[in-house]
Design brief:
With 433 residues, this protein is mainly beta. The protein folds into 5 domains: 82 residues, no CATH class; 41 residues, no CATH class; 33 residues, no CATH class; 44 residues, no CATH class; 107 residues, Immunoglobulin-like (Sandwich), CATH 2.60.40. Helix content is 9%, strand content 31%. It contains 4 helices and 29 strands. The strands form 9 sheets. The chain has a 5-stranded antiparallel sheet with strand order 13-14-15-16-17, with no helix packed on it. Strands 20, 21, 23, 24 and 29 form a 5-stranded antiparallel sheet that branches. The longest helix is centred in the first third of the chain and has 16 residues. The protein is elongated and about 175 Å long. 8% of the residues are buried.
Length: 433
């Protein structure tokens, strides 16, 4: 008789343990040549467990039909179990631990109930248009696919948990009417963080003057004439508005003209150019000098600064004509054209016609020069008896029957003696800048 080495298998042992012992048993049995084996409760597909020597018990709660291993009682697995198929819990079955056997209850319709608070390390994802709720209100919180959350009941938030910045006041519906005593406002009671409602009538009471309160006026249309009104440190007294330390800072005349006793301070860039009354200003009454000041927008960036007139002179520079011509002294012949070839290559920008005294007369000495035409005087001065024409080659001076000058002694206008004077022509060409 062979020795049976297979150990007994308890209902708490793993399936692998059962397989090992079952194979050992088969090997042991194959070596049995004779003897008596007693099997209690024998039935199809029951798995045998050893009771004593040569005695086995066919377990009714432990069966194997060649494809399915079934355990009808409690099964304890001490090692890691890997399932290649699904784990199916019977209707109204539980999944739990040794300390809490019904931690997860699964009803026949698939609803899962947790007996303890759950912890999700990866968060909880609700399906698009899904709901979160309670047994009594399954759609308390509806989450749309775009993330918009809708509550079916008024939510309750912890006191002080909603910041003022989170209130969308602009998006609210306007009251559409004047404020009434019964309208409600939200007030932080004593600024201690406890929010309460208050009727608009309380605000009226809070800001009202004692006299107005006792008069029980519901609609204040006029306060009459106030001689003086002081609000904090601002005082209004007659035609003046000021500070308690300077009561006439702003004086308002009957025609609306406002006078400031101190220089007002305006925000940078707040006064438009069109608001400056330049025409109404007092003229400087003198020529511009280097020390005079102008206002300039520094770099056109909106920052206004003062600048001396001398800087404008430096910035503009002195106009300079780069080409110039001066003729030699030429005899004057009346009733004739005098031609001066200037060789500038361009029509002169400025032509000056001088007469040079060669023999003193009319109070003028030999060598004196008189300017007859200039300052852009191409065209001449007919009343002096001269006309001037110029082109890119020549300057022509047309002398009439007489040329008029002033007597230096009598200051009377007289005719010069052509024989005692010469023409000298100066011409300038180029860019004035």
């Amino acid at each position: 008789m062979a020795t049976v080495t297979a150990a007994s298998v308890a209902t708490s042992d793993s399936l692998e343990r059962f397989r090992q012992e079952f194979n050992t048993l088969r090997s042991d049995v194959s070596n049995i040549t004779s003897g008596t084996i007693t099997i209690n409760n024998e039935s199809n597909n029951r798995i045998l467990t050893s009771v004593s020597t040569n005695t086995f018990n066919a377990e009714s709660g432990l069966t194997y039909d060649g494809s399915t291993f079934a355990v009808s009682g409690a099964m304890t697995v001490s090692g890691l179990s890997t399932l290649s198929g699904n784990l199916i819990i019977p209707n109204a079955g539980n999944i739990g631990s040794a300390g809490d056997t019904d931690a997860i209850a699964i009803a026949s319709d698939g609803k899962t109930t947790f007996s303890q608070q759950t912890t999700h390390s990866g968060g909880i994802l609700i399906a698009n248009a899904g709901n979160i709720g309670s047994a009594g209100d399954s759609d308390s919180i509806a989450i749309a696919s775009d993330g918009v959350v809708t509550f079916s009941q008024a939510p309750v938030f912890p006191d002080g948990s909603i910041a003022v910045a989170d209130l969308d006041i602009d998006g609210g519906t306007d009251i559409g009417a004047g404020l009434a005593d019964a309208d409600l406002f939200i007030v932080d009671d004593g600024a201690g963080g406890t929010n309460r409602k208050t009727a608009a009538s309380r605000i009226k009471t809070y800001v009202a003057d004692v006299t107005l309160t006792t008069a029980a006026q519901t609609n204040i249309t006029s306060l009459g004439t106030l001689t003086t009104l002081t609000v904090d440190s601002v005082i209004i007294n007659g035609t003046n508005i000021g500070h308690t330390s300077d009561t006439d800072s702003i004086a308002i005349a009957s025609n609306g003209v406002v006078t400031f006793s101190q220089a007002p301070v305006f925000p940078d860039g707040s006064i438009a150019v069109v608001d400056l009354d330049i025409d109404g200003a007092t003229d400087i009454g003198a020529a511009i000098v280097d020390a005079d000041l102008f206002i300039i927008d520094d770099g056109a960036g909106g920052t206004n600064r003062k600048t001396a007139a001398s800087r404008l002179k430096t910035y503009i520079g002195s106009p300079k004509l780069t080409l110039e011509f001066e003729s030699s002294a030429t005899d004057i012949t009346l009733d004739s054209v005098h031609t001066f070839s200037h060789s500038l290559g361009v029509r002169p920008t400025l032509v000056e016609v001088w007469v040079k005294c060669t023999d003193g007369e009319r109070g003028w000495a030999t060598g004196d020069y008189l300017l007859m035409a200039g300052a852009g005087g191409v065209g001449g001065t007919i009343d002096a008896g001269l006309s001037i024409q110029a082109d890119a080659t020549n300057v022509e001076v047309l002398a009439g029957a007489e040329i008029r000058i002033h007597d230096q002694s009598t200051f009377n206008e007289v005719s010069l003696s052509a024989s005692k004077w010469d023409f000298v022509v100066v011409a300038y060409g180029g860019d004035l800048g």
